């Protein structure tokens, strides 16, 4: 996930506003980062083809 940045504090505040806490909040943050990485990879693949 090099080159990707996530406002962790802001993202954590957002997931807490949705009612998540503890492990649920951590899982939502992880899903967000995975989604960012997949989106970045898809864009890179689109640029090279």
Strand content: under 5%
Task: Characterize the largest beta sheet: strand count, sense, and whether it forms a barrel.
Answer: none
Distance between the termini: 21 Å
What's the alpha carbon Rg, rounded to whole Å?
Answer: 13 Å
Low-confidence stretches: none
List the helices and strands in order. Answer: HH
Return the structural class.
mainly alpha
Question: Can you tell me the overall shape?
Answer: elongated
- The portion of residues assigned to helices is over 70%
Q: What is the typical, i.e. mean, pLDDT?
A: 79
Instruction: Write down how many β-strands occur, each being a DSSP E stretch of 2 or more residues.
Output: 0
So how many helices? 2
How do the helices and strands line up, and which of them pair or pack?
Elements: H1 8-17, H2 23-48
Keywords, separated by commas or semicolons:
73% helix; elongated; 49 residues; mainly alpha
Structure in words:
The structure is a single chain. The chain is an all-alpha fold and 49 residues long. Helix content is 73%, strand content 0%. It is built from 2 helices and no strands. It has helices spanning 8-17, 23-48. The mean pLDDT is 79.
Brief account:
This protein has 49 residues and is mostly helical. The protein has two helices and no strands.
């Amino acid at each position: 996930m090099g080159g990707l940045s996530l406002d962790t504090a802001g993202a954590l505040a957002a997931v807490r506003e949705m009612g998540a806490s503890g492990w649920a909040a951590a899982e939502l943050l992880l899903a967000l980062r995975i989604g960012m990485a997949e989106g970045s990879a898809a864009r890179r693949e689109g640029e090279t083809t």
